Amino acid sequence: MKEKVYELQEGEKIPLMFDSCMKIMFGNNERLEPLTLLLSRILEIPYEELEGKIEVVSSNTTNKHLEEKKTSRDIVVKLNSYRNQKIVIEVNVRQNSFDTIINRNLYYFNEVFTSGLKEGESYNNIIGTFLINLNTFYTDNIHKKIFDYYYIMNEEGYILTEKQKILNINIARCYHEWYTKSERKFRNSYEKDLFYLCAAMVTDKYDEFKKCLSKINTRLSIKEMIEEVSTNMEKKDELRLEYYNFMDETKRINDGILEEVKEKAEERGKEIGKKETIKETIVNMKKDNLSLEVIAKYVNLPIKEVEEIINNQE
Length: 314
Description:
The chain is α/β, with parallel strands linked by helices. It has helices at about 20-25, 35-45, 45-50, 100-115, 170-180, 190-200, 205-215, 220-230, 235-270, 280-285, 290-300, 305-314; strands at about 55, 60-65, 70, 75-80, 85-90, 130-135, 145-155, 160-170. Helices cover about 45% and strands about 15% of the residues. It is globular. It starts with 19 loop residues before the first helix and ends with a helix.
């Protein structure tokens, strides 16, 4: 039996503090305390040292390859300190293919990395960029690290540059381990606080939310502010607007996935020299981490029937 990996399942509700809510929670220049707390724990810098030195900047760019469509990163932050860098925070709900998520995030990441450099200016002036992905899944299903760091490096582990850095956090797993009371050792107090903050992001139950926050070592005023924001989120017009914008972007991405699926099927057909059966196609598409909804659309079968075929193979 294949091991079940904890992640949001097809049709499962996106939790309260997730996705578009993240922009309201951490993307507001009028209320930077929650964002400062989050980045303090990720960057392992005392809160007091970061306080007053971060700002949320415009995350909109014109994508010429998408018919001049304005595309938007979830949150882009400029860190005004001796570390002088830009930070991109992306929220990834597993409803797209794995390749689509990774390719999209790398595209956005490099857009931010190269932005701001004027014509003729020295490349040494490029500001380092740190991509933080808040995921509902593992990026590396072999080692299964909740906090998974990436750099450009060679086979011997020599890091080519520290101006580009990526951190993938499986925040759904943080919640799962907290909820099941799994024993976990932390490298330091920063990682411990980050773990519980991520667990709090995923729950939509207020009592659980407060219990996670109680584990975080920070000012009571900041905890109270986070609680206040979380209780008012569903009432805000801003949340509904951001949610619809997110759904439009998701639809565009999902429409593109079907073309990606067809290409993979054609490539696979060339390799084996024969046409696959629908059953084989479904199984192989699932191995490529495509969602049940996308598979069902491609093979023209009900989602329930697709799920039965996949379950019978495990």
